[in-house]
Amino acid sequence: MNEADRLQLEDLAARLEEANSQVALAKKRYDRERNARLQAENLLEDRARQLFAANERLEKLNSELEHRVALRTSELDAARQQALALAESDQLTGLANRRSFTYRLDQALEHARSEGHKIALICIDLDFFKDVNDTLGHHAGDELLKQIALRLSKVVRKTDLVARLGGDEFAILCPITSDENEISYLADRVADALEKPVVYEGASLEVGSSMGVAISNGLDISSQDLQRHADIALYFTKASGRGDWNTYEESMGDNVRERQKISHLLRRALDQQEGGLEVRYQPIVSLKTGKVVGAEALCRWTDPSLGPVRPDHFIAVAEETSLIYALGDFVLDRSCAELKSWLEESNTYLSVNLSPKQLKDRNLIPRIQSILQRHSVDPECLCFEVTETLFLWDITAAKNKLDALSQMGARIALDDFGTGFSNLSQLRNLPVDYLKIDRSFLRDIEHDDRALAMVKAVLAIANGMNINTVAEGLETSTQVELLAHAGGELAQGYHFAKALCLDDFWAFLALEEKEQKLPTRFGTL
Fold this sequence. Notes:
Alpha-Beta Plaits; TIM Barrel; 56% helix; 17 helices; five-stranded mixed beta sheet; alpha/beta
């Protein structure tokens, strides 16, 4: 092999080696790229799986979030509806509340003005609801309110709206579709429905209602004024004896303002212990001996601005405003102070009136005891008169008070016997010492045999129950003779004397002692 071939062979070998080297490098690069590709593919596949799993989780989370949002939205809607219901309805009865009722009343008035229609508003107060709360507790009161709400809902028309304004106050909003008589019929139905007793745990609760009606009469009247008119009519009903309804009239406003004025002046008179208040005494006479055996304390009031105020007028206002407690204390305190010496020196008694409202007062007995102790007056010298209306109240609570007074030694008289609510079975269980025969029974005994027979029947009942009697309102000697012949024991009235001021009472007693007989028609009638 020559040099040229050798060099050519070496060149070929060098090229081959370089080619092999390049092939090896290419293979390494290929392997590296393939491995990188495989790693990339594996990584992409892993990433894809991760992204798919993440997407599944996101979809699940999104679904859960949508469910939670929907559930929360539903809860918020329900809460909003409940809040609206609570804002517009009374929680105890489910009726519309004051806020909702006022809004609906405004709307009804606006509609009535635009259409030329009328609407009526009936305001209702339960007459003796507080007695139920005081005697049976608030649970009984709540059950009573729910029963009343149910009755009202049943008796009204579909177009009417019933609301509980608070406490024992209810109201009915009534569109007038034909004439105002339909409101009269509705008020009568409501009164009848509420007059029926409510049964609670076996007890029969007699509550009753007083109502005031106001009619828009097509006038441009505000809801506040319409409610004020209904309230005035309601107040008028209560002042007239409760258990009824009245429609507002302009004159009622004057009556309410007058009673408010009397309330203000009476309160001031009681606070000042002056202002024209005084106690007068009407002698109570024995028909057997002709002697004065007692005196009834009667409150009289002459206001500096009003002049003499009728007792039935200011006492009724006192009952409505709870001034009766202070007025009762005033009469007992003043009469004990003024007649103490007479009561100590003679075998006589002082008769003082107690209203049904006073009998409900938990502090009645302690206050009476305090007054008697302050003046050192023996309870046995006192007689407390109660009227037959106590049978309309909680008779058990009233009996407990009367029993306590009787146990102190005081006597009990049932006033106005036979005029309305007498219950002989209840009378048998009460500690009554005297029955006071009302003047309405005695007025006609001179010329009406049946009237005299009724008086004799009352006397026979009292005698059979070992109860004394006091006849009220005797005005003539013939009445006195007939009553004495029938077996009457004690009497009072203008035939003997009117209710006398203290000086005149002393003069009456002095004249009786001097002449050894009773003066008749004593004092100016």
